[in-house]
Write a structure and sequence with these properties.
- 71% of the residues lie in helices and 0% in strands.
- It is built from three helices and no strands.
- It is elongated, with a radius of gyration of 22 Å.
């Protein structure tokens, strides 16, 4: 696979220093920036999927007229939390 590059990025000297200060042993600034870009891409993809699921759920509820009350949702979440804490 052919590789590509990101455009050069001008940053404030303090930002560069802060990034260099958190590098792990053996980690380069380039690898840190690449990992950060990958993590943000993944986070945004998760957000997009979350919103899509929410909109699909909304549409299904409108179409079917079947809604779940907030009390039922909160009760279910509390139950899940209790189970998770007991593990």
């Amino acid at each position: 696979m052919k590789t590509a590059t990101f455009p050069s990025l001008r940053v404030d000297a303090a930002l560069r220093q802060a990034a260099e200060e958190v590098l792990l042993e053996g980690e380069t600034l380039s690898s840190f920036v690449e990992q950060s870009v990958r993590a943000n891409i993944e986070r945004r993809q998760w957000q997009d999927e979350f919103v899509a699921r929410g909109l699909a759920s909304r549409d299904k509820a409108r179409r079917t007229g079947l809604y779940v009350s907030s009390a039922t949702v909160l009760k279910g979440l509390a139950s899940r939390l209790t189970k998770a804490k007991s593990k």
